Amino acid sequence: MTTQTKPEEAAATAAERAFLSVRDLKVHFSTEDGVVKAVDGLSFDLERGKTLGIVGESGSGKSVTNLAVLGLHNRKNTAIDGSITLDGQELTDAGEKQLETLRGKKMAMIFQDALTALSPYYTVGRQIGEPFMKHTGASKRDARVRAIDLLEKVGIPHPQQRVDDYPHQFSGGMRQRAMIAMALSCDPDLLIADEPTTALDVTVQAQILDLLKDLQQEFGSAIIMITHDLGVVANMADDILVMYAGRAVERGTVREVLKTPQHPYTWGLLGSMPRLTSDVDEPLVPIPGSPPSLLNPPSGCAFHPRCAFTEDVAGGRCSSERPLLAPGRAAACHLSGDQRQQLFIETIQPRLG
Amino acid sequence: MLQFLIRRTFGAALILLLISAFTFFMFFAIPQDPALLACGKNCTPDALAIIHKNLGLDSPVPVQYWNFLVGIFAGRDFAVGHCAAPCFGVSFANNQNVWDTILDRFPLTLSLTVGSLLVFLTLGLGAGLLAAKYRGTWLDKTFSSASLVISSMQIYFLGPLVLLALVYSTGWLEKPKYVPFSEDLGGWFMGLLIPWVVMATIFTANYTRMSRSSMIEQLQEEHVKAARAKGMSSNYVFFRYAWRGSLIPIVTILGIDLSSLLAGGMVTEFTFGLAGLGRLALESVVNKDLPMLMGVMLVSAALIIVFNLIVDALYAVIDPRVRLS
């Protein structure tokens, strides 16, 4: 997702080069009330050593996308369509055994809350060493050495002693570090971080993000950073994908999306974020309304019921026709490029300060 | 751990003391003279007075209680002879030594209780695990609906049915009886097989449902998903991660169920004509036989306390957070 000159060609080469490539992914759950279209036609690419930030409100399909990549969705009630290729290997039709050899080794996940994501019944060392034993056939003793190594790498003091501690004996920040150590156990090429800092206080957040950046430089992993915190993405990501109601609505580099956002939803997200430079008396502007039901999403552009600019589009296309997201730097919106440019400069930018 | 044990032992002693005092004084609140029972049809006031003296009923109640307590540790002398420590007295009804009677009946009750405990834990937890593993399939539905039906099968209803089917009409098994297992292990096992299974039936159904729901809850835990995300196989995660956690609520319920287990034992003894502590307890209540009643109460209470200690120790084995705090 770099150049903009010839979109089709650029997309094709990006997909070839990409380490992880998701094409037209659909994840639909069947429930008693009907089919929930949690992810509905999502495409993105990620290269080795790069970080992709996926941003959106709760229920926009961020986490579901990544569970689908790992194959951890409930197979009984979930229909998956489209393609996910990791290093040339198709994942959507891979068998459970095949996925087990990939999980933890080639792709690993850092969960949001380490308190619930680490089992209270086993020592931290055992939980870190377990995937190492499974994937490399290492002995218990080697796994322990590996766990101590990793604990040291993620900055746990006295790893020789702490390796035999249980998660409840760790502080919140240390648990998150241990969780990261567990994900790094087999040097995965793809690291999915699902809101890795949401449960932590701000100083620890910064430390964890720095740690992730350092580790990425060392291991060269690709990272998917799922978050609703634009500050985290600004700090970490190379590219940004903004999701709304199971679809990507805007895509670009961090600079492009944060400096010159093009989609009204992204404007809303940026407008609801506090800024150090703005006046303290100036209230934050939330996006009106609430995220749509994925059981019965709005017609046309899913954002149109909450969008302030639908009248600028002729013929009511916002509620009748779904805008497409072009490859490369793009936003899925019926407003023309000039209109967006003008609206952003005149009404949005002054508010963002 | 040592401190924990000492504290618990003191607690247990206190509980036993309170139970004994409560039972003792409550007994004398009953407006009927226990000596009348021993006195027979042609009772004269003189004969009654002699019996009172022989049974030690002529002194004030607190003194009687004190003598009872002393007897447990030091032994006592009765008109019928010496009663060595631990002396719980002599039965009002038949002059038998209470402690000897209890020792005679206790092995049956222990065999019955522990045996059926093992049966329902094995079957109940096993069926619950299978139902959770194959949730939503015909297997799960069969187990779930069967456990609903079976949980309403009372011992006194199921017992005679099983006896009719397996003993009286087919002769496949012998009528339940108690053979001390030090004498004949096979006879002990075959003699108690039917009572074990019948007594365990309701518990099995309940523990199946409990184990299933606890397991389903655990399988949705984040750490189970995290273990899957690092590539551990579904069977490994099922047993190592989910099962371990699912045991904690089950152990809690087990601690609560221990007294109903003893009550179930009582009904089972009656159903199959076995002579254990449960039968003894009921007989002593009917006969206003205070020494026997006290003895059975205290032994049952001690049994429940010991079981509870084991349950508490199980928590520590399962959950390091209990062990280390």
TrEMBL record, chain A:
Which processes are annotated in GO (biological process)?
peptide transport
A single GO molecular function, which one?
Answer: ATP binding
Query: What's in the keyword line of the UniProt record?
Result: ATP-binding, Cell membrane, Membrane, Nucleotide-binding, Transport
Q: What residues does the ABC transporter domain cover?
A: 22-270
**Topological type in the membrane:** Peripheral membrane protein
| Xref: PROSITE patterns | ABC_TRANSPORTER_1, ABC_TRANSPORTER_2
Tell me the compartments it is located in.
Cell membrane
Taxonomic superkingdom: Bacteria
Kindly give the InterPro entries that the UniProt entry links to this protein: AAA+_ATPase, ABC_Ni/Peptide_Import, ABC_transporter-like_ATP-bd, ABC_transporter-like_CS, Oligopep_ABC_C, P-loop_NTPase
Q: What is its main location?
A: membrane
Which Pfam families does this UniProt record tie to the protein?
A: ABC_tran, oligo_HPY
Gene Ontology cellular-component annotations? plasma membrane
Signal sequence extent: none
| Family per similarity comment | Belongs to the ABC transporter superfamily.
Q: Know the name of this protein?
A: ABC transporter ATP-binding protein
Automatic annotation (TrEMBL), chain B:
Q: Does the keyword Cell membrane apply?
A: yes
- Name its GO BP terms in alphabetical order: transmembrane transport
SUPFAM superfamilies in UniProt: MetI-like
Please report a single Pfam family linked to this protein.
BPD_transp_1
| Localization | Cell membrane
Q: Which GO terms describe its cellular component?
A: plasma membrane
Domain (ABC transmembrane type-1): give its ranges. 106-315
Q: How does it sit in the membrane?
A: Multi-pass membrane protein
Predominantly, its location class is membrane
Keywords tagged on the record:
Cell membrane, Membrane, Transmembrane, Transmembrane helix, Transport
**Transmembrane parts of this sequence:** 12-30, 108-131, 143-168, 188-208, 247-272, 292-318
Recorded family membership: Belongs to the binding-protein-dependent transport system permease family.
Q: Please report the name of this protein according to its UniProt entry.
A: ABC transporter permease
Organismal lineage: Bacteria, Bacillati, Actinomycetota, Actinomycetes, Kitasatosporales
